[in-house]
Every structure is written in C-alpha cells, then in structure tokens.
Automatic annotation (TrEMBL):
<feature type="transmembrane region" description="Helical">
    <location>
        <begin position="230"/>
        <end position="252"/>
    </location>
</feature>
<feature type="transmembrane region" description="Helical">
    <location>
        <begin position="138"/>
        <end position="160"/>
    </location>
</feature>
<dbReference type="InterPro" id="IPR051393">
    <property type="entry name" value="ABC_transporter_permease"/>
</dbReference>
<dbReference type="InterPro" id="IPR035906">
    <property type="entry name" value="MetI-like_sf"/>
</dbReference>
<feature type="transmembrane region" description="Helical">
    <location>
        <begin position="273"/>
        <end position="293"/>
    </location>
</feature>
<keyword id="KW-1133">Transmembrane helix</keyword>
<keyword id="KW-0812">Transmembrane</keyword>
<dbReference type="InterPro" id="IPR000515">
    <property type="entry name" value="MetI-like"/>
</dbReference>
<feature type="domain" description="ABC transmembrane type-1">
    <location>
        <begin position="135"/>
        <end position="351"/>
    </location>
</feature>
<protein>
    <submittedName>
        <fullName>ABC transporter permease</fullName>
    </submittedName>
</protein>
<keyword id="KW-0472">Membrane</keyword>
<feature type="transmembrane region" description="Helical">
    <location>
        <begin position="56"/>
        <end position="79"/>
    </location>
</feature>
<dbReference type="GO" id="GO:0005886">
    <property type="term" value="C:plasma membrane"/>
</dbReference>
<feature type="transmembrane region" description="Helical">
    <location>
        <begin position="172"/>
        <end position="193"/>
    </location>
</feature>
<feature type="transmembrane region" description="Helical">
    <location>
        <begin position="335"/>
        <end position="354"/>
    </location>
</feature>
<comment type="similarity">
    <text>Belongs to the binding-protein-dependent transport system permease family.</text>
</comment>
<feature type="region of interest" description="Disordered">
    <location>
        <begin position="1"/>
        <end position="49"/>
    </location>
</feature>
Amino acid sequence: MTVGGRGGDHGVPPRPSCGPHAHPARRAGTGEHSDRNRTSHGAAATTEPGTAPRGMVGWAFMAPFALLFLLVFIVPILASVKESFFRQVATIDEECANPLYGCTTGSADEVVRSSFVGWDNFVYVLTSEMFWSGVGRVMLFGAVQVPVMIIASLSLAILIDSTVLKRVTVFRLGYFLPYAIPGVIAALVWTYLYTPELSPISDVLGWFGLEVDFFSTNLLLWSMANITTWTFTGYNMLIFLAALQAIPGELYEAARIDGANAWQVATRIKVPMVRGAAMLAVLLSIIGTVQLFNEPTVLAVRNGWMGPGYTPMMMAYNTAIGGQISPSGVGPASAISLVMAVLAGLLALVYMLVQRRLAK
C-alpha cells in the first residue's frame, strides 16, 4: 500500500534538491541567487554618493516652518514669561544722567527702571478684584455662547450636507462670509446696529412697542455674544461639514434599507460620527472665549462705564499700553496673559476628560 508518495517509494520522502547530493549546477545556481540577494540588499542599504539621506530632506522641508514657529510663537512666549517677573519701578537717581538738560550733579531725578519682583505680579493678578470680575464675565459669556454657537454650526452643517439645499456652494459661502470680516470691523458694524438712534433693529422692535437698549448693563454681554456667534458660526460649520463628508456612504445606505428617516439618520449616524470634530470646535471656542478682546474694546468706546478691565484681555492691554491701571507696564500684563493661558488649558483639559469619560 502506497502512502503519501508515488508507487514504489514506500512513503520515503524525496531527497532535497539542495542537499550535499544535489546536482552541482543547482548548488551553483543557489549560491549565485544568494549572492545576488546579498548584493541587492546591500545596494538598498547604502546611499549613492552625492545624494542626501531621506531624513535630511524631510528636515530641510520642515526647517522654514520650524524657524517661523520659533520666532513668532516660542520666542514671544518665553519673553512674556521672562517679563512677568519684572516690573517698571520709579527710582530716585541722585546724579542726573544728562546735565545738558538743566540737571545739576546731586539733584534728585526720577528714573523708571525694570526691576525683578519675583512672584509679585502673579500675586497682584490673583488678588485683583478687577481681574476676577472679568474672569466671571468671560465664564458666563462662554457658558451661554459656546453651546449656542456649536448647536447652530452643527445644524447648518447637517442642513448643507443633506439633499434639502440645492445650491450648496452659495449657502456655504454665505455662512462662512462673516468669519472673513475682521473682528474690529464686525464689532463696528454691530455697534451701528445696536445704537438706538441709528439701529434698524430698534426701529423694527419699536413697531411692536418694544424698547431694547443693547448697551445696557444687563444686555451688553449678550450683545457681544451675538457678535461672536455671528462671526464664528460659519467657521465651526466648515469643521463639522468636513467631518460629515468623511462619513462612509455605506452607513447611509444601510440606514435607508432599515427604514430610517432623515431625522434618524441625522441624530443616530451623523451626530455621533462627528464627535471628534465637535471636540475640536469646542476647544477652539474655549480658547477664543478666554481671548475675548475685539468686541468689548470696540464697544467700550461707546460705553465708558465698562471700564478698562471689563475682560481679562482688556485689562492686560490697558495695563501694558493704556496706562489706565496701576501697577502698569509689560510685567503685570504678561502675568495676566499667562494666568489666562493656564486657565484656558485647565478648561480644555477638563472638557477633554469629561468627553473621554462620556465616551466610555
């Protein structure tokens, strides 16, 4: 009985063709093939003379961006950190520095010098009532404005991604156009729209017997929130729209086969699939809320009661340049900016941890 081989082999496995009894030509061919493999691998591992390594080419392409990033981002941050430990202090110089201007030796002359004060600037910021009042306004602003803007952005993105709108490009451009307008210009336009003597909005409300003062102490914060929402809704809409267009079409086809309607497709497929885009949009909105500056600065020209520290960034600006707050100078202003940067990082971290917990 033959098992596992041709008749007469009795199951004995054949001799290997490359063993010691193999034909010399086969052994020579095998050796030649091995030498050729070794030669090819060796050629691939070495770099031809006169050519740069692949890694160096990548670094060369990245060098311009890295240099600009270092100059316009890292260096200013380090300079701000350094300045936050100094303060401009007026000292008395017993000897006049320049007698040509009428000073005589031995007369008292006030000289402003930058002196190292350690953590005094940070202590001043953390104990300032003006600073914490501004932080409270910014937190209240973000707690209302950010959710409203994110919901509006997501709704517009879902509407454009659906088949309801015909000319998608026109609507996409129209929603994004407010973001292309500089923030100062947008604030000036809305200041005109809010002014009671000039506002067409006030005229329309007057037809219904409503008199609304958008510059009152109770409404000014929400007037600024309206400007910010109008400006950045289109930008966040593009973030959501890019995420929606990356969803595989097979999911929509499977949902239609299962009998899902448009509302179920939007709420059970589209919204869960853009969770990453929502996290990005919220993080950018948190950072933007902490940096609230253009709108209150422009509106403060019309409303002097706001003061120089209505928001923390206004306080930093007026401390560094305006001279309306004491102590003034670059040092205390840098301390305000760094404290707000840490606060923005903490808010973003808390949001990411909450999102990760909810995702589990």
